[in-house]
Amino acid sequence: MKDRTEAKSRARELVSRMTLEEKASQLKYDAPAIERLGIPAYNWWNEVLHGVARAGTATVFPQAIGLAAMFDEELQERIASVISDEARAKYNGQSSHGDRDIYKGLTVWSPNINIFRDPRWGRGHETYGEDPYLTARLGVRFIHGLQGSGKYLKVAACSKHFAVHSGPEALRHEFDARANAKDLNETYLPAFRATVQEGEVESVMGAYNRVNGEPACGSRTLLQETLRGKWGFQGHVVSDCWAIRDFHVNHKVTSTAPESAALALKNGCDLNCGNTYLHILEALQEGLISEEDITTACERLFTTRFMLGLFDSDCEYNRIPVTDNDTDEHAALALEAAEKSMVLLENDGLLPLDAGSIKTIAVIGPNADSIAALEGNYNGTSSRYVTFLQGLRSYCEKHGIRVLYSLGCHLFKDRTSNLAQADDRLAEAAMYAEIADVTIACVGLDAGLEGEEGDTGNEYFSGDKKDLNVPESQRRLMSVLEKSAKKLVTVIAAGSSLNVSGGNAKVFAWYPGQAGGTALAGLLFGEKNFSGHLPLTFYQDVNDLPPFEDYSMKNRTYRYFSGKPLYPFGYGLSYTNYVVTGASLEGNAVTAEVTNSGHIAGDALIQVYVACDSPFAPLHPRLCGFRRVSLDPGQRKSVSVDLDPLTDTVVTDTGDEQKTASYTLYVGFCQPDEQSVSMTGSTPYVIKQTKV
């Protein structure tokens, strides 16, 4: 039930009938049954980052960073609603068979709204990119879609990882992220505040690291003063997994497990993902906590369970059947998302490909026929995977085009067969590229090369990247293809900034989900138009950036980067041209006159940036509004773009918000900087605003 008052009352009554030991037992993620009170076992740990994860068959949407590249709030919410439908369908079916295991509950630990501040961070592809406003908007809409609008919560969403968390993965269990007041309140906290106050997210997960000396999962500053105090958060807080153990094992802020449990519980961490709360009763015996502390946490957790309708037969979501999982309609939405997420980075006119003039294409590369290149991490298992090779072959067969395929090289090793010499597939790649009319190189990474520390056995263990290059094996492949191919299209599957040379055209596909191959084929051959845009800056080299461990925003992200990027934030090409012929500010929205001046239909992404007249403004104009609009050739539309309520606000060095007397808005299809304008051929419309 969305009525928290009633849910709290019922939780309080139920918890009052528990023994001390029973209350303590419910504070772990794998909460046992209390049969005498009719309480079934419940596992709080579930993941739905871009589809129901790790629990069998489900629709796999593009990885979170790909969803961000759509810049589409409405579609974001529709996708989240489908994900929560599938989570309920699977929960209803599995729990009816007594399966209450991990990854099968209704408390879902998504979205990840950390700021992707450094391209080396392996988990960056779990986020919505580097911009606080974009992250906030997409995070709020994802939460709305997950939690639903019914009498009960459809699922309980979770904003993570609170806060100031974005690597290095190898150090996360001991690292102290130092952030000044301006960076905290301008960059690291706004998305969390939005998801709490506007999104009404039901839970918040703490981070592994310390923040300015305090462990995030036991931080009085973050959990008590900010989250519950300033922001009025009413839900429950969960630790990251085994993060409370780090208090005494790695951070050394406590000496024993009972002390760590007490520090977390006293500061408002209600649920332990891990086992340190097994020491809760020892902490009580040592006088470190009170029974009231245990009771408060337990009541918060059962409030969430009541809001989910887990003790009510009339919950509307109990009626969602198992057949509402993995449907044709959901698959169609996954395809739409994949099509709208891919970004056209370069095109010398080769694209769109003309099926009528091509007899043979070569599809080459370690990601060409790779399911892992579709999935990203925290993924489910699709019954409908279409790899890039499969999607292209299916399209080409319908048009009488011969497809030649070569792996080309291993994803990162120097040979594909242990008994072979190094570069054992390069000759095959070269011979196919030489005879094909067009070669499509499918390169990049997968979640085995960039991801979470220790999560799935990442090649470099920590999951972080050392540089912005693809592995050496793929660089040698690209060198061969540049020499051998008549025409070369480079398709990059990855979740972060990469600098890949070569090609007449270049596409960034992210980890596009189950329909990635179908989407790619439709886009390359012009059945669909590219409309994705970069939700993060692509840099030339990591040497252009500060040290990875430095959490200052100086020289980071498009707002503060002082160098020349490879591709700017907000950048993305199309097969057509869009023009803003006029724009005006009306209240808290910009009305823009937008025209498709080309010959192909497409989706224009209107981007609004603001430059405040203040010494506290970021180095460059920041995003304050965006909206997609579909336009036929020659069509003109008047489009209203809602603006950030804080458009005319800056954050001072003390972390306070300050209104500005004047500011300038830039309304267009890219950032207003010289490089973005040059690369897109589009100049934003300018609105100067001065308060009287």
Highlighted features:
692 residues; alpha/beta; Rossmann fold; Immunoglobulin-like; six-stranded mixed β-sheet; four-stranded antiparallel β-sheet; 20 helices; 29% helix; globular
Low-confidence spans: pLDDT under 50, at least 5 residues? 456-461
Strand sequence of the main sheet, in spatial order?
A: 9-14-13-12-10-11
CATH-wise, what's the superfamily of the domain at 333-560?
Glycoside hydrolase family 3 C-terminal domain
- The 3D shape can be described as globular
The DSSP helix count reads 20
Structure description:
The chain has about 700 residues and is of the alpha/beta class. Among the domains are: about 335-560, Rossmann fold (3-Layer(aba) Sandwich); about 580-690, Sandwich (Immunoglobulin-like), CATH 2.60.40. Helices cover about 30% and strands about 15% of the residues. The chain has a six-stranded mixed sheet with strand order 9-14-13-12-10-11, with helices on both faces. Strands 18-17-22-23 form a four-stranded antiparallel sheet, with no helix packed on it. It has a three-stranded parallel sheet with strand order 3-5-8. Strand 20 and strand 21 (about 655-660) form a beta hairpin. It is globular and about 75 Å long.
